[in-house]
Structure formats: C-alpha cells, structure tokens
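INFO worker-7 received task bundle
INFO bundle size: 2
INFO processing item 0
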Amino acid sequence: MCIAGYIFSCGALLLLFYWKPAWDVWANCIPCNLQEADVILLRTTDEFQKYTRKKVTWIDLSKLNLSVRDTSDSLFIADKDSVINRAIMKPELKVRSIQVQKIWYIWDLSMKQFQKVGSLDDSNSCYDIHDKFGTGLTREEQNIRRLVCGPNAIEVEIRPIWKLLFKEILNPFYVFQTFTLTLWLSQGYVEYSVAIIILSVISIGLTVYDLRQQSVKLHDLVEEHNKVQVTACTKDEGCKKLESHYLVPGDILVLEGKKHSLPCDAILIDGGCIVDEGMLTGESIPVTKTPLPHMENTKSWKTHSAEDYRRHVLFCGTEVIQTKPTGKGPVRAVVLQTGFNTAKGDLVRSILYPKPMNFKLYRDAFKFIIILTLIGVLGLIYTVCVYVQHKKPVAETVAMALLLFTVSVPPAIPAALTTGIVYAQKRLKNKKIFCISPQRINICGQINLVCFDKTGTLTEDGLDLWGLIPSEGSRFQNVYSFASGTPLPWGLPCGAMASCHSLIVLDEKIQGDPLDRKMFECTCWEMEDSSTAHSKAAVPDTSVIVKPGPNTRNAPVDGIAILHQFPFSSGLQRMSVITQQLGKDQYDLYMKGAPEMVTSFCRPETVPIDFVKELKVYTTQGFRVIALAHRALNMGKDVELDNLEREEVESDLTFLGLLIMENRLKAETKPVLEELSTARIRSVMITGDNLQTAVTVAKNSGMISKTSKVILIEASEPEGPTPASITWQLMEDSKQMAAGITDTCVNIEERTIPERESNNYHFALNGKSYQIIVKHFKSLLPKILVNGTVFARMSPGQKSSLIEEFQKLNYYVGMCGDGANDCGALKMAHAGISLSEQEASVASPFTSQVPNIECVPELIREGRAALVASFAVFKYLTLYGLTQFIGTALLYWQLQIFGNYQYLMQDVVITLLVCLTMSLTQAYPKLAPYRPPGQLISPPLLLSVILHTGITAIMLVCGFLLVKQQPWYSEMANHRESHSGNPSILTTYFQSCCSPSLEFAFSSSLLTSMLYTRECSFSALQRSGEFTS
C-alpha cells in the first residue's frame, strides 16, 4: 500500500516519510520483539525526542575460518566477560549490530539488549588488565575483535556533492518554494519565477559549498591520525610494525622514544611517559602518565583509581613527548578504546552531531509560521468564496487561492533567524574569537550570568613566590622572603620544593606547570636531562635528578632522584613524589597541595596550633597558599614503586610549612567585570583554589563590592544520629577578622534563608559543602545559587554540575576558563569560552586567542547584535508578508493581482537586499543594562505586528474604497493584469517601506551600514518613481 501511496501522491508520501522517519517505520514495519527486529526506531532522550530509523546488520564470523568449538559454552574471546562472547550466535557464528552516530552496538543474547563495542569492559580490575591483556591477543581474537569493533579509524567521509545537494533540495523550505514557483509559473509569472530560481540556485550552491568545505576540513583534520605506524605485540607473532587502523581493544602497544601522536586510547601498564594534552584541554602543558598498578583485587580499574584514573590513560590525539622505560623493558600500554569510542573520536562526534540547543527563539519562530499559515488558510477560504461568487472556473479558483496562501508565509522566514550569525561570526574571527558552533552566537545575546575560573583567567598564569613559612616542632618559624635574593638554605622544605613537581627537561628547557616552574626556580637547583643523569647515578631509568646549582648555599646532598610520581589531580587537590638522595638507600615522600588537604594526611602533633589563623592571614590578602609535607619511607630496595598505591604511603606525614605565592589580577579583569555589572550581568567565580583566597580575589576584582558582605556556607555530612547541617558565618573585613567570625542564625529544618537585601550579600562555599547541599538540601540550593558568587575547591565534575543547576534556574550561562580543568563546564554552558592559543579548541564552542576575559563582553555584544538583527529581519519579513497578503486580498475582490515586475521588484530588488544588508550593522559599543527580547511570542512584538498590520489594512481599505468612488474610476478590462498606478499597489509599497523595526540598544545605527543606507535610498527612489508614474 505504501508503494501505491508513493505513486499516487507523486512522491509526496515518500518525501513525508523522509522528514518523519517514525511515520515511515510505523507504515512499513510490524511491531515485534527487539530481539527479532530488522528495523529499529530510536528516539533521543532529550526534550526534542527526535526519531531515527536504523537497520539491523549481521556480522558474519564464519568467513574468518575460526577453529571449531566443541561446546556452545566455548569462548571466542579470552576475556570471558566480554560482550562479544555473549553476542555470537552459535552455530551460525553471526552477530546482530547497529551503528548509531558512528558507534557500533551488538546484541547481547544474555542481557537482551544492544551493548556498545569498541572498548574494553569497565568491569576489568587492575589485575585483569595486566593478566588478560599483558601478553597481547592471539591472531584469531584480533580478527574477531577487528570484524566486530571495526577499524581503529576516525573516518569522516568527504560527503559527495550530489548527496549534499540532494539533502539541501529536500529541505522543507526549498520543497515549499518549489511548489510555490510551480504555481507562479503556471500563472505566467515567468520573469519573477526565474529570478527566484536563480537566487535559490545561488543560495543552494553557497550552502553546499560551505558544507563541503567543512567536511573536507574535518576530514583532513582526522585523516592524518588514521595512518600512523605503530608497534603492536601478539601472543603468536611477538612485536611488529603495523598501521594503526588494525589496532583493536586489548592489543599491546609499544611506545617508542620518538615524538608521536597516539592513534587510540590506551592504559599504561609498563614504564612512564610525558604527553601533551593540548588538543583535549587547550593548554599545552606536559602531563606525566604513570603505569596502572599490578594489584590483585576485584574492584574495577576505574573505581580503584577513583577520580585519578586519567593519570594512567593515554588519550587519542595527544602527543607523546617523552617515554621512560623501566628495567623490565619498553614502555607498553593496553589499547583501551578505538575509533570513535576514543576521547578524540568523542570530540569529533560532538562536531558531527552537536547537541541541539533548545532556544526559545526557534520554538517561537515555528509557532509564528503556524500562525501565518492559519492566516493563509483564511485567505484561501476568502479567495474561494470570491471566485465562486464570480462563477470563475474551478482550476482558476484553486490556483488563485493557493497563490494567496503562499503570499502569507514568506519562505525566507526560517533563514531570517540566521542572517545575523554569519556576519557576527566573521566579526568575532577578526577579533581572534573562533566558533565551532555558530548557532550559539544568538544565544550569547541572552547571557545573564557568566562563570569565571580564577587562575589563568581572572589572574595571571605566572605566580610570584612571596615567601616560605617553615614549620618546626609544631610551630611556625620566621618567614623566609624570596625577595631578599638570599638562596634558600637546605632542609626538608627545600627538598620538597626541589623535587615535588612534574617538570621535565625537553629540548634543554625545563617545561611543565607554571606553579611548579616558579617553585623550582626559586630553589636555585638544576634539573638534568634523564639521558645525561642516568649515566652518572645508580638510579632507575625512569627517574629525574635534581641537583644543587652553583648559586645555592652549601647543601649536604649531591642530588635527589625523583623515582615515582603521584601526579596532581584537581579532585584530590594534591600531588606527591617518592625520592631518594643520591648515595643513600632511604626513600622519602614529599607532598604538596591544598593546605586543608595536606594537613589531613599529616600527624596532628606536627601541625601548628595556629595553622587555621595563619592560613587566613594570607588567604584573606589574596595570596595563593600551598602546603608542604614529608615522610621518610622504610621500604626495601626491591620494592616495586610502580605498584605502590598513594593511599599506602600518603599517611603519617610531617607538616613542613606553607609556601606563599602571589597571584596578581590581569589588568583587563576589573574593567570587564565592572562592564558586566553595569550591564546587569552576574559574575560568578568557580575555582579549585582556597575559599579565602577566592573571596579576596573576588573583592579585589570588583566581583564583590567593598560594601557587600560575604556569608561563608559550610555543610556537614550526617554522622550517626546527627543529621546533615549547614553553618552560616558572616565574613568580616580584614580589620575585624581578628575579632572572630559572626554566626548567622538560619532555620535549617524549614530550609529557609533570612529575608535580607539580596544585593548586599554574597554566598561563598567550597566544593565539599556544595556536594552536601545538592545531596541533602536540594530545596535550599536555588536560594543559595541566586546569591552565590564564590565557589572554591570545586572539582571538574562539580563545576559542570553547578553550571547545570544555574541553567535549571533559567539563567543563560556563559563560562570562561583556560580549558585545563574546565572542559566539562565549558561544554555544559550555553556559551563556553576557552582562553587558548589554538585557533579552534575542541574544549568549548568558542575559543579566544587573546588570553584575557575581554572576549566575554565582546561575545555578548556580538550575540546581542546578531539576535536583534534576526528579530529585525523576522519582523520585516512578517510585516512585509502580511502587507502583501492584505493588498493581494483586496485586489482579489475585483479579480486583480499584482503584475509580474511588481512582484519582482518587491520580493527581489527591495526585500531581499534589505534583509541581506540589515545585519551588516556593527554591534553597539557598550553593553546596555537590559537584554534584547529572547522570544517572538511576546506582548511588545505581537502588539507591534498587530497594530502595524491593522493600520496597514485600514489605509489599504480606505485607499481602495476612496479610489473606487472617484468619477474618473473605471473597471479594468483584463482582471489578470495590474498597472503600477493602482492605488492598492502604491499603498502596499508605502507600507512595506515602514515595516522594519529598528533597535539601537544592541547594534549600531543602521545608517552605519553603507550598503543598507544605499539600499534604502534606492528603494525610496524606486517607490517615488512608482508613485509619480
């Protein structure tokens, strides 16, 4: 029946099914069990609930000539928990699969559901990773995995021009336009129709060209990584060279010393390496990777490593800078994920399948088109009544009714919403702000809250060491000032500063985190390249050696070998290293990190009694404070350092002191925050730094005014019978700090906050308290967020969660960060801006090559200008369409219609050029204290359209009736021809001239656009000629 429907509808039904795949499936398929389905209808879980039709494919393993299995329980994959074993149908040796957004899923016969393939199961423990995959896969298992998982390649095809053309032509806009043009051609409007066809062909051509260029650019970006030569090992054949697209999950990858890009995600199991993850984070700082410990436990390897699991994983697309083999052999890694399952593949998929933005503007535009369509239906009924009354032929009646229907809905309305985006994107690029998601530019015009990272965003990247406060005998000693120029004397604090870091020597330069570099430079010690150092000291090959420099004071040590690192993690807020003094057998552990975190690992008797008071003295002045600690390890020489867990050694430490670092504000920070405040755009700080330091920076930058008060919020987990609680403390200024902190009474049981002037209070809390509030005081969270300004000690996951909670309160949220630990938050925000030197960072939709926050108001300005331009064009087209509809309807009353050239002049020469030039106006140089309207279905806009349309209708009807009463008026002989002197047409021309709504609060005056001014002048002259002819 469907085939008959296709034929009798001349393909219209097939086109409808192309637009609505769900209807296609319901019409052509019979509902059945998922296990028996040949076609599957998928629906997204977001609010859009978009349907996709997928066909089930069969993977035939029999062509691999597998060895015969005697029983149905025999395994084809050594990993008995692998989903592949549960998916193979026996004895047919077939697997059911579907591909969704470049990811393959296979049917799990035992779980009765489709499971993702292309990665190792997360259920594997650390021991499983080493034991099952440490010796490589067999050739047979490699072939099975390769056939089921697909090649290890991120393949982005260059879409053929005919496919792009076909997809563009089948767009509902062009289908409607094809129907309209067919109708106009049938009525003799040849010149007008040809002009519209030429413009449509040009538009389609430009769109196809742009899509083709994007496809080529993305293809070239990923193609070079698909053909990397790697060394892989198998059980049968040992190690050999092969192309990277042959890799499968579970393969052993040998990392050689030269620089190279990683073609897959892999878990490091032997040796260490240094990688540059700039492609992922936007920040090109060397990152140390350590091997996964070989421990016998049943916990998942990710669960075992907790938030720190990334330190064992090498991500696809990142560059291996340096490898550190152990005495066991070369640096080896187990392939974890391949193809589009990798970190880079996920980023490419986010470009290919961007998350749809639920912007109210687009929903309202659709509603507006429906309203105009209903008006068109009324016009269709009106035409039928008029032509039937005049006893006109049915064919002519239908044709004229459809003509009036097409007039009411200007086909350019959908495109009108994007007119300002193209120009805004070009202006942003000229200001070194790059965008990979142009649709978000309009949303930037609605931003009313911006979240900022602190270090590297509001403050300078580089830190200046202010001083060291050593601790001895549970007492703080005199402050050592680095400004004095006196070399730091030898001692455990000096040992910690010299060795507790992740710096490396690369190309004879010390590279790494700016904080680590500054700390190491102040010790006046030197770092030797590993290849040089290893020949002079009996230490493991993976170690780095630091030695006293010529400017140091007499140090009683020859040097320190850094044997093992537990790298810094934002979630753990600390790092530590295991070291050994050259010539000695004893191992030492040094730790540095957040003072609150480090002291929790120290013996209480070693922490000074006035620790909290001393810490506040410096954090309230805006200093960044790092704590140092030490422990002497009593371990034998044969201990396997790579298998040590940090929990085993990070305990019973001795507190060494506090390192005070000065982190100055960037010169652009304060003016930008003042500009945002004047524009009534909230600014919020989300940082991993200390709470007191963050509050001080917020005050110094103007984020919190000097007259405002800060309420510190501290939440506690429930303990036994004691429920979860929240403490509210009023933070006084520095002069009153010594007098203590004032408590504020809050009714926790009723989840209420005292009624006060909200503008005078700012809440500040840390990540731990935020997590407790989310868990135990969910109803209180919105009230806290409304006045929350400083969120400190926030992990990357908590940053993303906070952005999402703000969005739930109907905020349009912007996020600005350096990209290092903000990737999740940058993607979650409506407008994420990464400060990166790269032209286009995959960490966020927007990337600014200028490393300061001046890009934020610039982006908001351009977003407002683009949004207002879209509104102006939309309103112009709507009013133009309604005006033309009314004029045409009046002419129908006496069986007349506009002439060919009159439609040509209105639709092409005037309207098209106005729409194209209206968006050329620059953004207004200042941010107004109110946002442009974000919805079309709003009283001001509706009132504007209704009043304008009403006045137009009255003027047209009055002019129409007045002319008919004149003694010189006579009926036209040919009802299908109109003259330019017709008063109805002249009035319509006049009304269309008044249609655009000009907005000057968010974009510069339209007179600043020379093209627009010339177009308006030309239109006015043209209309004058019409009136005077």
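INFO item 0 finished
INFO processing item 1
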Amino acid sequence: MTKSVAVLFFFGLIFCMGFIPVSAAVADGELWEWYGSGNSAGQIVLSPETLERFERPMMFTNTSGEDEVDRTEVQMSTKPEKSAGLPLPATAQERPLYDPGSIIIRFKPDVASSPSLLAQVSETTHSQTGSVVTMDYSDIGLSGMQVLQLPEALSVTEAVDAYSRNPDVLYAEPNYYYYADAMPDGPQYQELPDFTPAPTAPPAQGGGGGAGRIPNDPEFGKLWGLHNTGQTINGRTGTTDADIDAPEAWSITTGSRDVIVAVIDSGVMYTHPDLAANIWTNPGEVPDNGFDDDNNGYIDDVYGWDFYDADNDPGDFNGHGTHCAGTIAAAGNNSLGVAGVMWDAKIMPLRFLGPDGRGDTAGAVLAIRYATEMGADVISCSWGGGGYSQTLADAIAETPALVVCAAGNEALNNDLNPHYPSSYASENILAVAASTNTEQLASFSHFGATSVDVAAPGEYILSTCVTKVTAFSDTMDSLEAWDADALWGLNTVYYTSAPSAADDSPGGYYSPNTNAWLTTKDPINLNGLQGATLFFNARWDLEDGYDKLHVISSPDGETYYSHGNLTGSSEGIWYTVTVPLSMYDGNPVYIGFALISDGSGQRDGVLIDDVDVVGIESLSAGYAYMSGTSMATPHVSGVAGLVRSVNASLSATEMKEIILDTVDTKPAYTGKMVSGGRVNAYEAVRAAAPVTAQPPSIVSNKDSVIHSYNFIVTVSGEPSRPYWLYVRDAGLPTAAEYPLIAPGQVGVTPGVEMADITDVADFTDTRAQIATSAGGTRMVEFNTTHATRAQNFTITVVDPVDTALSDDVVVTVEQGAVTLFPSGTGFYYVGEEITLSGTNTDSDTVYLFLTGPNLNTNGVRLEDLGVPLMDGTPATFTTVDVEADDTWSYRWDTASLNGTLNSSGYTIYAVSTPRDKAHLSDAVYATTTIQLRPAFITAEASSTILTPGDEYRIAGIAGGAPASVQIWIFGPDYYGGYDGALEVWSASVEGDGTFEYVLEEITTYALQEGQYYAVVQHPVDYNFGVMADTATGVIYGEGVANVTLTTLLAYDAATALITALDSPGVDDIYARLNFEVVDATLLADFAANTTAGTTPLTVQFNDTSAGSPMSWSWAFGDGNTSTVQNPVHTYRAPGTYTVNLTVSTASGSDTLSRLDYLTVTNMKGDFKGDGKVDIGDVALVAHMVVGKAAPNPAADFNGNGAVDIGDAAKIAYYFVEKIPAL
C-alpha cells in the first residue's frame, strides 16, 4: 500500500474512534505557512477527528513491572452506528463525526412553550436514559433545545434512537464536530511563497475599471485577492484583475466601525497590531469587574466569548481564526503588514474551535446565538463537517445576520455531497468556493450549481496570524532524548525522516503482558506558549481492543496521565496523530508512549516517527499564507461588511442578493455555482448604496486666485457620505499646470480612480474621494504654484453611486508679479559680487538679462555679455529657480565685466518667462539700474628690514571682490621658491576685500642679505592675466612676451613682471613693495643636565645658541656625534670627555668646545669596565680573597681595609639581587 498521511485525534479516556485513511481524513485539513514575526516555520494538518478535552485523566505509575491501568476505563467501545433516522454515508469520506459522550435534542413546541411543562417532561424523559442536561438553549432563544451528557453505558446511536422515538421530542441528533476548512495539501515546512510584482500593471478590467484607492500597507502587493496586477505568488503568475476589485470599492467606502462581523472560529488574536484597532468591544460590559453588566449571560465578555473553554478570552491558540479576521478587516492604510477587505470594521471574536481546529455543534450554536444577541451584521464561518444538524440549521435560520460559510475542500459537488453548514437551506446562508489567482476554481474547492453561491480568492492568501513555536522536535534517528526500557529500539522503517523510527519490538512481535515505556528524559519547556499540541507519525498493528499504545504525559516525570490510546491496525498506513497539551501551557511537560498488552495475543507492534510539540507564542503576532475555502469565506464576509457600510437598512437576504447579482461571471465558475462568478466588491458596493435624492453642491471661497496662493471649496451633501471631487480636464499636459488638492487633509483621499467619469484631469492630486462630516459638509483646500496655468478651472463634485448627481464651480487662476532688488547702493566695483533677489508669484523660474551701452539691443546673459538672447529659448538667459515661498536670489560675479562695460548705467531685467526686451508686452517682469567702478588694490608690509628667521607679512585691500591675489617675491638668488626656483604664492581675499600673506620664519631663514622686491597681483577677470610656469621660470599671458625670470637679477625680474602686468591684453592691477634682509650674529652655546657620574652615564644636552641656527653638529668626545638640536647621549666607559657644538645658518656657522666637560667613572663593583656587575666581577673578587688575583682596594665594599670573604659575599648577593647596592 502506498504511504499516505492521515490525521488521528484521540477522544478522551473511554472512547477510541475508528481510524480513517488519508483519502478521507485529510480532505478538510489545513496548510499553515508561517511568515513575519516568530520562530521557525511549521505545518499542521487538522481533520474531523479531534482530541476531546481531557477532564478525567488516567493515572499511570512509571514502573517497568505491573500494568496499573484500569482496563474497564480505557476499553475501546464499538464503532458508532447511525440511527435509522440518519442517512448512512457510503464512504468513510462522507462519514460525519461527533462527540461520543453527548447529543442534542429539541422538544416539540407544545412542550417547549411552557417552562413548567418543559421542566417536568425533561426530567421524566432524561431519567429514563440517565442523561444529564449540560446546556439548555431555551435561555438563549432556542426553546426546548438541550445538550445532554450521556451515561457511559449509552452510545450516541442508542441515545439518538431512544429520544427520536419519544413523542415529546421534535428531533435528536449527535453533537457533531466541525473543523477548519483550509487547504489539505502542501509540502511540510514550506517557505513563504515567492512574490514577484508585475513589471507593468495594466489597468484593471473589472467593474472598478481602474486602480482605485491603494493603501500604504507594505505587504499589500502580495494580496492578489484584493488587487491582482499579475504578480507572481508561489511561482504562479496571476491573471490581471482576477480579484474582488477592492481598491475600486475603497474609492466609495473602506467600511464602517458601525458594522460588526462575528468571526466564529478558533478565536482571534485581538492584540495583533494589524487587528487591534478593528476589534469589537462590548459596550455594555465593564472589564474585569466579575459581573454580567449587560445581563446577556456572560461575565466580562469584553471582546467576545470562548465557547470552547467557556471563558471570556476568545484568543486564538490555533491561528486559523486570526487569519480569517485579517482578511476581513486588518487595519488598512496604517503602514503595517496587510490590509483587510474592510479597513474599518468591528470584528467580534467568538471561539468554538480548539487548538486542534475542532469544535462541536453545541459550541457553534452558542456562538451564533451570541453573535445574534450582540448585534452582528455578518457571521463568518470558515469551517464545516459532521452531518446534518437541525440544531445548527435552526440557529442559523433564526439569526438576522448574513451567515457566510466555507463550501469545503475535498473537490466535491455539494449538490450530491452536502457540506454543512454551507449546504443548509436557510436564505441567509452564503456558500463560498475558492478561486485562484489565474481565475480558476481552486483544485481543492467544493462546488455546486445549486448549493454553492459564489467564488472568492482562496489560494495562497496572506493575512494576519499567530506565531507558532516548536518546543520539541525529534526525528527519532536515535533515542538519545528518551528514557526507554529494553523493549524499545530503532527500526529502519520510517515515515519521512530517514533513517529510522522508534519501534516497541524491532524485528519481531511484541510479547504478551508487555509494559513498554518510552518517555522524554528532560521536560519540554512550554513557558510563554499557549495551545500546546503534540504531533507524531505512527503506524501500528495491535490486538484490537486489548493491546493499546497509550499517549501519556506528566508534569513531573513521575506520575503520568493517559490521553487515550491506539489499538487495532492502521493497515500499513502512516497517520499523523495530534494530541492537545494545552493543560500544560506555560509549564514543563514530559511526554511518552506506553504499550500495554494482555496475555492473549501478540502482533507486529508500533512504529513512531517525527515527534513534535508546538505551541503559540501568545505575545508574538505574525502573518501567514494559507489556502482553502476558509480563506475565500472572509473575502466575502468583508464584502458583505462593505455593502452593509453603505446601506445599513439592507437585510441579510438583500445583501446576499446584491453580492450574487454583481459578481464577475467567468467560464471557470459557470455551472458550478449559483451566481456563476467571483465576488466583486466594487460592483456590490455600488449596487448597495442608496440613491441620493439630492445632488451634492460645491462653492469656492475665492472666484479668482493669483499663482502660488490657495483656495478652498466647500462640498455639501448627505451626512457621512463619500463623494468624488475632481478638477475637470483642461487639456494641460502636466499635473503642475492644474490646481492641486493639498495633501494631508482629513476626510480627503487623493488619487482614487473614478469609474465612468470621462472629463476628469487624470492626475493623482486633481481627483479625490471625500467624506462629508456628520453635518454633511467637507472643506477641501487646493494649492496653486508658479507652474499653475493662468486660466479658468472647473472643480466638480459627483455622487459615486449616481454620477448624474453633481455640481461644479469655476475658479480663475491669474498671473502673479515679479520683483527685483540688487544688494548694496547700486554702485559696484568691477569684480565685486552683486546679489540680485526678489519674488515671483507668476512662475517657478526667473529669467535674467542685461541691456546697456555696447551690448546687444535685446539683452545678453549676465554670465557672458557676448551671448545675445534668443526669445523663448531659456538656455540663452540667466535662469534662477523660485523657492517654495516665492522668493529667488542670484549672486552675480562681475569680475568678467572689466573692460567690457564703461561707467554708464546698465539695466537688469527679471522676467517670469524667457522673453527678451523686444517681447515683453505680455510678460511679467521687473528692472533695476546699476553702475560699475574699476577695481583697486592696496598693500602694506610688516617691515622694510628683515632678519633671517623673522616673519614677514603683506596685507591689504582688493576692491572688486577677487577670490584671491598672487604674491611674487624676488631677491638675491631668490624667486619665491627654494634653490632659485620660481614660485608664486596665493592669498585668499575675504568678504570685506582684505587679504594677508605671511612669509614664514622657516622660509626667511634661507634668505640672503640684500634687497628684495614684492608684487601683489589683483585679477580683475576670473583668471590672472599673467601666470608662471614654475618648472621653467617663465611668465606668460595674453599679449605678454615670455620672459625667464630666474635668469634675471632681482630688480630686473620685478621690472619684467611689472612690464607684463602693464601689457594691453592684461587687465590685472598690482601693488609693489620693497624690503631688505640683514644678517644676525650667530653664537653657539649649550648646557648639560649633569657633568659627572658612573657608567653608564646618560646626559641630556640642550642647545642655548643665539642667532637662530638652522642646523647643529655635536661631538660627544667618545667618538659619537649627533645632528639633533637637543640630543640625549649615554657614556658607557670611564674617562674625561670634551664636548663640541657647531651651529649653522644659511649665511655662516659658529663652534663651541668645552674641554674635559664630563667625568665618568666605573660603576662600583664593575672591575671589567663593561658598565655592569656580572658573574665575572663576582669571580674576580673571589679570586682576590683566595689570593689568585691581586686585591683591588675598590673591592673593599665593607670598608675594613681588606678584601675578604665578606666582600665576596656582598658582591655575590648584589649580583643575584639579594641586596640593592654595594
């Protein structure tokens, strides 16, 4: 038999359901693919069989000896049979599943109508079966309906049959299980599907006819179901507009906080950042006060109710409900995550599915009744299963809400194989199939020409979700994580994780009377997790009903509890078994398996592989892709909410009719559902909106406005209604030429597409959806700029529901004005920078030009007076951009004008368009007159006499604002550089015209005595008229005879430079300075920090010479020298030393010699004279003591007049550092 995967859930302590192979069990399973915050990815598959909440655990004591199980409590009952009143399904795939310990009945109206009679008949009837009423639905409006807990001896089949025969009972039925309707297949641990945006998104072709209103949520581009642009999801490129036209619908409405959508599911993570703003809160309940403030039967039901655990926390321990809620109403346009079909809504979380995704009829009915009582407009049900339940059918039929139900995921025809609750006949049920991003019916989706109503996106849908964490995982490649008795080992047979699986009896049959234990060595940490669940893959062959594999758990590793057992045979098929561990949430848990057999027989045993414990991180929100009719259903629930938002008077059947009448009919759905199409939110909203009796009106606060000034229009219409507002198309090519809607206005959404409006100026900020206030008005501000065309503009308001209802107003935009102001007094030096500034309210650019004597009659550019203007050609003008506050400024450098202009006046023009002087008749402009003066320069030196090593400064003023001046200096064999090279120095000119150049001391050191000449060169043009080639010493310039200055004497070099500066082609000006360099007396001198000591003697020498020497030469008397100014030298030999110092400048030198300046003696104990006391000196003293060497008086360290053993000991101690000194 081919390996296949199915799912098994345990049903408590006293009942073990039969096992269904893969073809049946996984059909309504669910694929989770995790995305966003949280830890590793994971997959959970759910099925109709689910673990019953464990209330009476069986105790096991972990001993290898006796089996302490009370077999009467874990004895497997026979498989349930159908009562005569219920159809027996033909295959296991169709077999309904139900709670083995309870049923639901309803007494006939003549009994139920009288409370006293109902109490009497109920007591009598139930006493005959021993059943106990656990829930009486009479308290919530379903009179005579009760949930009964059966005695252990009474099967569901027997109970249903007994109550059905009772003449006072209207019907009796099992308490059916229901499970999440999400996609059954998909690879385990699949990564987030790849997403590729369409390179160019063509216009949408659906009813909306355009892009509509696009939110700023970062993951919106992946929501193909809302807006399909052809993007690629999970490797499949979509079909453009195979979506519900959500953006187009949002141009009319994004929903309403007055619309309540109840999500009856596994709960909702109501703290999720993308959902919190849209979670319903009970207005009649005071949080956490312990009272039922609104008298609805539920205490502190602030956010809804948990009908699974019967408490007030409808949080999600599975993730399915949170995903559905996000598709319905994840907050839109909040710069976070995804957007729901409704940006604004109230999601009512109602939990009846457990962590394993399973709930029962009793919980579903309670949830529907709660939603009804608390005013839900839409009830979203992404689940199904069980069989036909009259109880559930009655509850749905009696709610005024539209109930949107998943059609199922087994690719079945619901006309032939009903799927509940979607197949109930109630008019307020809307059954939903799943479509793909290529406009096909999803491969897994149910269909039905008469039983399924509509299709909606349901494959690879991204939405909000909880974050799941794997707390424990073992592929059973070894048993290192387990304590196992001798019977357990590894088998080379495995499920998916090669190479092995755990086996209770490797290689053979298990033995009779076996107690084989396999438990985790260490506790599994569930801290911070909720809804913990154990998953493992199993294959087994056990004596049916007698030999059993118990799944066990323990809080302390000592006392274990059974969650139920496997028995019989899996017939060679692997099953994925799911066991809730939520009773251990937040605490450590040990898990294990116990094979308990009797003595009557033996079989092949059990294989266990891939054991995982997974929980939900309660404070960690995320996003996930999921597939299934579960995902299609909330799309339709959201559309129903949008429909309700624009027309609160609609009944459930009217909403359903509108949704079915406005679908996009497609071949893929024709004949497979009632409507033959996929839901279209835009068309549904348009059809639902009530017709406005009166058209909207519009007025402006100004009939005319000058460029760059704003105006405000006021729209009046129905209170709290959306309207479209736009500027009528004026045939202008750019948006900047139109008045534009100011950004950031409350109640104004720019850029919406307006279907069927043909005269709109097609730019983002020329059109918007506005929402009137509760008073029926909305003020909208329009901006104009310099670029706005001066003409009449028509502003129109239209009702998006009935575009024939409209009004308009005309606003005239007029030309602005230009002003021009020069800096200063109007009189300027050539070369000076002039700042021209002003305002321009007519355009975004100012065009400047100059007219006057010797210039082109119609004007020239300011930067180049030789370029005549060309009217209408901006490049021939000096152009300046206008700032946002309408001001402009231009800095004009007049250095290039020297010699071009005379002392006459010149006129500067500032124009709002590129028009020359001859074409100003229709232009907006301003003028100013200026006069220019010639540039000048002054210079002074710090001194006329200079001693080498002194600083020399040249300072002055350069009129005409040059950037810098050049400094030329000539003297004896000096041309500004070293070694007779020509060098020209530059000095920057400050804003006030001042400049300064400093000839540093290091430079003057090298100057010879004699006369020096300095020339300061001022450029009137941008560039210097005379330049130097410093490599050759040649000067050059326009009309200048090239001269090699470095071959001339100082005076002649200076004269040649002046001649060049006076050339006709050079307009530079200059100043001349002279100074003389005289020599100073040079006198060598020095000092030392010490002049006597023992070896080694380190001496610091300091130069104290006069006359600013430039170099030093030391001779220390021991053959060593130095050229450092202040050297440090160490003498290592005794002696008397003479020290010499010679100091020099460029013009001379001086020497000082100090005779016998230093006296150096040997170190005490250093008889060898090597500057240290070592073992040789110690030996020498010892030889002196024993007469092998002549005594040296210096060895008498003790001072007793003789060299003796005490002296030898002392030097030895000194050598080994036992004493500090001799």
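INFO item 1 finished
INFO post-check item 1: The radius of gyration is 50 Å.
INFO post-check item 1: Residues 140 and 297 are 9 Å apart (CA to CA).
INFO worker-7 idle
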